[in-house]
Amino acid sequence: MRDDQLLRYSRHILLDEWGVEGQERVSQSHALIVGAGGLGSPAALYLASAGVGHISLIDHDHVDVTNLQRQIAHSQARVGQFKVASLQAAIQAINPEVQVSGYSQKADSALLAHCIPNVDVVLDCTDNFETRQLINRSCAQHAKPLVSGSALRFDGQVAVYDTRQAESPCYACVFPANQSFEEERCATMGVLAPLVGVIGSMQATEALKLLSGMGSSLQGKLMMFNAQYMEWQTMSTTRNLKCSVCSSFRANS
Length: 253
Fold this sequence. Notes:
Elements: H1 3-8, H2 10-13, H3 19-27, E1 30-34, H4 40-49, E2 54-58, H5 83-94, E3 99-103, H6 109-115, E4 121-124, H7 129-142, E5 146-152, E6 155-161, H8 171-174, H9 186-189, H10 193-212, E7 221-226, E8 231-236, H11 246-252
Parallel strand pairs: 1-2, 1-4, 2-3, 4-5
Antiparallel strand pairs: 5-6, 6-7, 7-8
Helix pairs in contact: 4-5, 4-10
């Protein structure tokens, strides 16, 4: 590592569990963030500040003034821009060494199939069930760890689904793809601004642990947070051996 890199990342390198070796692993890694809004903003900024070498972004939406209440990577000056372009500018303002690949289009099966095989970790920062299932299917197919987050009103969730581990569930094991869920969006239900920061920061934390090799992940756990009463709950999750999504991919691996 260069002297300027040792200085920039010194507070991570000082951690015995991280060290120079962990920093080098992070700097050589590639993370995909699907969703450049409330969760994707803090997640991307923390991954960039930590020195993740390559960050890919997927989001088809534009920055709207209603986003500015919570989507901290965007600004008044960038209202109307694609969120991917706005977030890329915010990332490079923090750490210009980070390589950023942006896809200002909807996260469909074809795009995910193009991106996910080439990354080390995927962060699901989206807000709809259909896209979450598409991301999960592609992660299971290509054996990539998935860091999932969600936030609405005062409630947030974060989990890690890592089908490289035999005992780990995938997202569909916990939230089956064949079940119907009523979509609730913050546009109609509202969301507390700092809540997305809490959950997005936790997603970044889990991703950095996976990339650096530090500690243990939330694999097999679903953490739930209620910001109104500042209460945390953790629920154990288990693999569904008959899961319609991951069982076939595991059998072929």
